[in-house]
User: Fold these one by one.
Assistant:
Number 1:
Amino acid sequence: MLTYDDEHFMKQALREAQNAYAEGEVPIGAVIVINDKIIARGHNQVETLNDPTAHAEVLAITSACGHLGAKYLPDATLYVTIEPCHMCAGALYWSKLKRVVYGAADVKQGFQFFYGNKNPFHPKTEITAGVLSDDCARLIKDFFKERR
């Protein structure tokens, strides 16, 4: 049985972020994985949907819960290109994910800005930071540089 690593799935989240970029959205992407299988994908669609809650993480959670027919995701790992914001941290808490893996830190809007070193997610949720962080940060920096 083929087993994938965190970098493999973060590359998939980066593909989602590139889709957001192409749509003129802030390029953040997410995938949700169970047993080495992607069950949900999402990328920012705030502008497209005129919805301030249409972040990659929230859209991926909604899709995963719909796919499973469940409101909790205790066996799932979320891969997201940028550190989740305060709002997304709340959504991730309630989804009870097994793991949250993110790429680049977000020093202005990320959950650590609000929570410091405390875990804002469900107590059983593991956090892994910095996976392909340079690639994730470069994409978002390029996006904002292009728009200035």
Number 2:
Amino acid sequence: MYRPLIDKHNRKISSVRISLTDRCNFRCKYCMPDGTIDWTPKKNILTFEELTRLVDLFYKSSIRKFRLTGGEPTIRHNFEIFCETISKKYPDIELSMTTNGHKLKEIAERLKEVGISRLNVSLDIFDRDKFNNITQREYYDDILVGIDMAASIGIKVKINAVSMKTFNDDKVSLNKFIEYSANTGIEIRFIELMPFTGNDWSADKYLSSEDLRTAFNRIEPLEEIDKDSPSQTSRVFIGKSGAKIGFISSVSESFCESCDRIRITADGNLRPCLHANKEYSLRDLMRSGASDEELLNVIRDGLNEKWASHPDFLELQYLPPMSDREMIRIGG
């Protein structure tokens, strides 16, 4: 019954990204749609008991890596209890989180206590005014303090920045990224701006990893280092200063052939591929009394929908499926 989850392209699933909520206290312009957002009603969000059941299934299916996402996962009430439950039950898992970092200075020690060993913190620029403008919030200083605190107590921290033309690709901005990474030892990874419903993507904003690397190399030549694992999504480079700069080319360079991850949305859908809008409701199955075997059968069916590689988004001019949902409802 319990066996490793392998898709039809013979890729073994070893990582699950679990969205705890579709809500966020930031309003990042490249992520959130304009205007009023109809948040998912609480009754439709997976309970911690339902999430724990899914973790049990995935663990028994040989998965050991779990990343908590959102929305912003830290705004879900008592999310620490869920972390503590699964990390104590399965002490050999790697439990990580993607966060905007606004609460880190308050909860960093607690995160380590409940089993969070890795954090990806979203920070698109080292400039307070530009940060306030893109997020439409004023947490810049709190985030920097929180990152320092988390790193100082042994949590492995990486910074995620969405690369955007004319926003964070100028010489001043790139120098600040280099200096911060060199001084702290924290890796900074640049993610290409991806097309999603409601995020107002345009060619005027899109910046390829190749063009961004070229801009960095004009300041400080970067040398690529080996990947930690074949499924690593980023290509990481190091400069003479010691700065570690990574690039996730999720648009221009398909890395689907080594994809080992799936997503669970906050409302309980299995999402086999980030950019494919086909989903499978595990919540409805659980609430209708489905057995573990029935859940696993649906999960395996879903895995067979995983793409061999994603379409050429540039050729398609980044038009996402009109029936798809916003990135915040999918989970990072």
Number 3:
Amino acid sequence: MSFLIPAAHAQEAAAGPAGSGFEWLFLVGFLVIFYLMIWRPQAKRAKEHKNLIGGLQKGDEVVTSGGIAGKVTKVTDDFVVIEVSDSVELKFQKVAIAATLPKGTLKAI
């Protein structure tokens, strides 16, 4: 019966393709693009926001991340109190402040 099934003979293992360094170049290029387009701008925005939060003072005109504009009346460690209208004050976490406005902007709105 062995004439119907040919005998399998072991062959030497084929050598893999020689590494040309192209794979490493591609990986390094990907990491550089990732750093320049994602990591660096995000770190810059985080640093600017941290400086914004650290520099809040009473009397600053701010906008929250929810779009509420008002004047800071009290600043504590984690919270700020914002006057949004006459005798209407709201308490926000500092991290909710998105931007400061130039002085007099609220009167112009």
